[in-house]
Write a structure and sequence with these properties.
Elements: E1 4-11, H1 23-28, E2 31-36, H2 44-56, E3 65-70, E4 78-80, E5 83-85, H3 98-101, H4 106-127, E6 130-135, H5 157-166, H6 168-173, H7 178-181, H8 199-204, H9 212-217, H10 224-234, H11 239-244, H12 257-267, H13 275-288
Parallel strand pairs: 1-2, 1-3, 3-6
Antiparallel strand pairs: 4-5
Helix pairs in contact: 2-4, 4-5
Length: 293
């Protein structure tokens, strides 16, 4: 099936390595060999380290191809107990305590990750291999969930503009993100095409919560306490968002195999995807979206 005699190396977060095929797995089928260093929850510190480690160990050769999908900036990765700890967005995890969070500033993450991106750019240039940067979302985009509106107040435009100018060459090298190309700048815009688990809501439903039928009909009258409970669980600002995006179905907003294929066709058209791979991805998509019983 492979059309390229060399090795493909891919780096990223769960948008790169997940429980179903991603853009990386699809492209990997087009190469003679394939190494995927994606990790669920990973931020750009992990990605930077894994790329540099691969270069240091001479795993990446001059004739190889490297594609990096940069993650969102509000993540903190640590190498502890001989393995990478990647809990994902720092505003939606319980790994780092309040003492740590007191020193968290999105602007710091932004400046840190721009340096990571620039360093990887120069390191891969020195290897002489083909490489491409993509991203999960634009580098200055920091909201991963609906209830993260408060983050807009923490990111000072003057600082973002200043460092964007400093690192413009490297930012411009990153191709349009999944957030922009596939989700139209709204993570919830294609929820009907994503994997859903409607049974999840009933497994966690509180005694005063509305039924699935009431949610489907939009017929809900809630106390303030119940609405806060539901919105906290579903990462929404209010019940209107829960109803609009049908969040009670526990929608997995990771791109499905077909959405990953769509992204590749639009953003990396120079790497041709075989018809055999396209058929396999379509078959996987059908299995993935089969109604759960």
């Amino acid at each position: 099936m492979s059309s390229n005699p060399h090795t493909l190396h891919t780096f990223g977060c769960s948008f790169t390595s997940y429980i179903w095929s991603t853009w990386a797995d699809i492209l990997g089928q087009q190469f003679e060999s394939f190494r995927n260093y994606g990790l669920v929850g990973a931020g750009n510190t992990y990605i930077f380290n894994r790329v540099m480690q691969s270069i240091a160990q001479e795993k990446i050769k001059k004739d190889d191809t490297v594609i990096v999908m940069w993650s969102t900036i509000v993540r903190e990765d640590r190498f502890l107990e001989d393995k990478w700890q990647t809990p994902g967005c720092v505003y939606n995890q319980d790994y780092y305590d309040e003492g740590f969070m007191k020193y968290v500033q999105p602007e710091d993450f932004f400046i840190r990750d721009l340096a990571h991106i620039a360093a990887v750019y120069h390191a891969l240039t020195s290897v002489g291999c083909k490489f491409t940067f993509t991203s999960m979302s634009p580098i200055s985009h920091i909201k991963e969930y609906l209830n993260h509106n408060f983050l807009d107040k923490l990111l000072r435009k003057s600082i973002i503009d200043r460092f964007t100018k400093k690192y413009k060459t490297y930012i411009d090298f990153i191709r349009p993100s999944v957030f922009e190309v596939i989700y139209n700048n709204n993570w919830y815009s294609r929820y009907s095409e994503c994997v859903q688990d409607i049974n999840w809501y009933n497994s966690l439903r509180g005694p005063d919560w509305p039924s699935l039928t009431e949610l489907e009909l939009g017929n809900v009258k809630l106390s303030t306490e119940v609405e806060q409970e539901i919105c906290h669980l579903l990462q929404a600002n209010n019940i209107d968002e829960v109803l609009k995006f049908r969040l009670w179905k526990k929608i997995d907003y990771h791109p499905t195999p077909l959405l990953h294929l769509e992204y590749l066709d639009k953003v990396l058209p120079e790497i041709k995807i075989s018809e055999q791979t396209r058929t396999l991805i379509n078959e996987e998509q059908i299995r993935l979206l089969e109604p759960q019983v």
